[in-house]
Design brief:
The chain is an alpha/beta fold. It is 41% helix and 13% strand.
C-alpha cells in the first residue's frame, strides 16, 4: 500500500535520446546487480537514502562506470553529492538530462548541471511505465500521474518548497487528460498539492468528469474552504487525500509558516472533506518547538476526534537545504548528520521543550497507539458510514500496512507524560469507551467541539 511506481526514473528514461538501452531498478522491490554491464548509472535519491546512493556510486565508479546523481538531496546538497558522483543534476531533469547524455558520449561530462529556470511542464514526456512492468505486482499502483509540481506555500521544513523555489507549475490539462485515458480506472496523482492553483484544479477536475476514474492525491487543508472545488474533486473521482495537518498547536504552525492551516477550524475542515466521501490521511509532525511531552497523548485524542482515516507520523526533521535546517544549524541544535537517520522516524535534533529520548519514545508510542487494532476497526466503520466503501477499504489496507510495520519493527515506545501507560492498567473496556461514544454520536464524523 505504501509503494507506487515513482515517476523520476521512468520520466528520465523517456527523456533519454534514442539509441540507448535502458534498465530501471527500484531497490524497494528488487536487488541491484552490481555486476551489470552498463556504461552509465544514474541514481535518484532523497536525503535518508544518500548513504546507500553513495555506496552504489562507489562500487560502480570502481569499475570505471560513469555515475550521475539527481533528485532532492543532490539538488539541495549538490556539494555533498558531487563528492561521490561523476556528475550532479540540480533541479528538474527535463532541460538537463539529454545534454548530460550527449556530454557523456562526447567525453565532456561536467561536474554539475543546472537549469537557468524551472522547466516548462508542457515539455514533460509521458513516463515509460513499460520499464517497470516486471515489478508491477509489487506496487499498490504503477498508474502514477503528475499534473503539477511545487507548492505556493513556503513552509520552512518543506523540501518541496526548497526544491522548486516556492513556485508551482502545471502541465496543460489536455496533456494530463490524454495520459489518464491510457491508464486503468484506479490511479494516483503524485502532486504535492493538487489544488495549489485552484483555477487549474477546477479545470482539470471538470475535464476528468467523463473519464470516471477513482484516484487519491495530496493537497492542502484549504480545499475545505472552497465547497465547489471540494465537491468537484469528489465528482471527478477523488476518494482520498493526504493532507499535511502537521500539528494541532497554533504557535507551532506560526513558527513553520503554515498558519493557513488554522487550528481553530482544523477539525471542522477535516470533517467537511470527509462528508464529501473523501478519506483523509493526516501528516503529523511531533517535536516542534512548542511541543512538550504531553503532545503525544493530546495528538492521539485530537486525531480520534477529527476522524482522520490514517496517519503518517514524522519526528521533526530539518532536511538539509530547507530554511528549517539552516535555523537549527545556526542554533547548534542538529545532533546528527548521519543521513540514514533523516527518515522522519529518528530524532536528529535537540528538542526545545523535552529531551531527545522523550521525543523518540513518545513518537513511537503515538504511532503504536494510533494503530491499535481496535482503533483500526472503529476507524474503518466510521469511514464506511461517512465516506463509503472505497475510502473504507483503502483506509483499512493502509492502516493494516502501518500496523504490520509496527509489528515487524517491534515499535512500542512510551508516553513520556506519565510514569506508565494507563491503557495497559485500565483494560479494554475503558479504552473503547471514548471511540464507541464518538461513533454513535454522529456517523457523519461530527462531534461537538
Amino acid at each position: 500500500m505504501l509503494r507506487f511506481s515513482l515517476l523520476s526514473l521512468t520520466t528520465v528514461a523517456a527523456l533519454t535520446p534514442p539509441g540507448h538501452e535502458l534498465v530501471l531498478c527500484d531497490e524497494n522491490v528488487e536487488p541491484l546487480d552490481f555486476d551489470a554491464q552498463v556504461d552509465v548509472v544514474g541514481v535518484s535519491f532523497m536525503t535518508a537514502l544518500a548513504p546507500r546512493a553513495y555506496e552504489i556510486a562507489a562500487r560502480f565508479r570502481h569499475r570505471g562506470v560513469v555515475t550521475v546523481a539527481g533528485g532532492y538531496h543532490p539538488t539541495l546538497c549538490p556539494d555533498d553529492a558531487a563528492a561521490h558522483f561523476d556528475a550532479v543534476v540540480v533541479g528538474d531533469a527535463e532541460p538537463l538530462w539529454p545534454q548530460v547524455v550527449k556530454d557523456i558520449e562526447a567525453g565532456s561530462l561536467k561536474k554539475v548541471y543546472r537549469s537557468d529556470a524551472p522547466c516548462d511542464l508542457a515539455t514533460v514526456p509521458v513516463p515509460r511505465r513499460e520499464l517497470t512492468a516486471h515489478t508491477r505486482r509489487y506496487y499498490a499502483t504503477t498508474a502514477a500521474v503528475q499534473a503539477g509540481r511545487g507548492c505556493v506555500h513556503g513552509c520552512t521544513y518543506c523540501s518541496v518548497a526548497a526544491f522548486h523555489g516556492g513556485t508551482y507549475r502545471a502541465r496543460p490539462v489536455e496533456h494530463v487528460v490524454a495520459e489518464l485515458k491510457t491508464l486503468p480506472r484506479n490511479l494516483m496523482f503524485v502532486d504535492d498539492n493538487i489544488i495549489a492553483d485552484p483555477a487549474y484544479a477546477h479545470t482539470l477536475f471538470t475535464a476528468m468528469l467523463p473519464l470516471k476514474k477513482k484516484w487519491v492525491s495530496q493537497c492542502s487543508l484549504t480545499i475545505a474552504d472552497d465547497p465547489e472545488l471540494l465537491a468537484l474533486a469528489r465528482q471527478a473521482g477523488c476518494r482520498g487525500m493526504f493532507i499535511g495537518i502537521e500539528t494541532f498547536d497554533g504557535a507551532n504552525l506560526n513558527r513553520v509558516d503554515k498558519n493557513f492551516n488554522g487550528v481553530a477550524t482544523m477539525r471542522t475542515r477535516i470533517r467537511r472533506i470527509r462528508r464529501q466521501g473523501i478519506g483523509v490521511i493526516a501528516g503529523i509532525i511531533v517535536g516542534m518547538d512548542n511541543d512538550t511531552k504531553h503532545v503525544f497523548a493530546r495528538t492521539v485524542r485530537l486525531l480520534d476526534e477529527a476522524r482522520v482515516d490514517a496517519l503518517q507520523l514524522s519526528i521533526m526533521t530539518p532536511l538539509p537545504g530547507t530554511p528549517l535546517f539552516a535555523a537549527f544549524e545556526r542554533s547548534g541544535r542538529i545532533t546528527s548528520r548521519d543521513w540514514n537517520a533523516y527518515d522522519f522516524r529518528h530524532c536528529v535534533i535537540a528538542p526545545a521543550r523535552m529531551t531527545a529520548e522523550d521525543l523518540q519514545d513518545g513518537a513511537d508510542w503515538l504511532y503504536r497507539e494510533f494503530y491499535r487494532p481496535w482503533r483500526i476497526a472503529l476507524r474503518t466503520l466510521q469511514t464506511l458510514v461517512t465516506c463509503g466503501m472505497i475510502p473504507a477499504l483503502l483506509g483499512l489496507k493502509l492502516n493494516l500496512t502501518y500496523l504490520g510495520d509496527i509489528v515487524r519493527e517491534r515499535i512500542a515506545g512510551r508516553n513520556p507524560a506519565v510514569a506508565h501507560d494507563p491503557a495497559s492498567a485500565t483494560g479494554w473496556r475503558s479504552r473503547l469507551t471514548m471511540p464507541l461514544q464518538a461513533c454513535v454520536q454522529g456517523a457523519d464524523g461530527c462531534r461537538p467541539d
